[in-house]
Hints:
115 residues, mainly alpha, 3 helices, 93% helix
Amino acid sequence: xLDNNTRSTSSAAGGALNGAMNNAQADVKTxxxxxxxxxxxxxxxxxxxxxxxxxxxxxxxxxxxxxxxAVQGQALVKGKELAHTADVYVKDNPWRTIAAAxxxxxxxxxxxxxx
Length: 115
């Protein structure tokens, strides 16, 4: 059975991951917007300055893709950890799990039955 320390650790880790994902998402959006601005400016220019802006825009997009990949990897690892924690809880508390599933099923049935 999961004790309170395990539950709070899982919650804290999930909260930290959510915060990191939100920060990374904001960073990626900012990087993509900056890259779009640079590439738009480069489209209006010609010559060496345009090539420099295009190069910088592509670098920003590469950084954004790298951050997105890192966040995806972290989310995958955390998802596996949470699935394992849920699996352990279900194995340790089968009757509670059955009761919870039945309760949710009953609630969904009542809601759908009203229509």
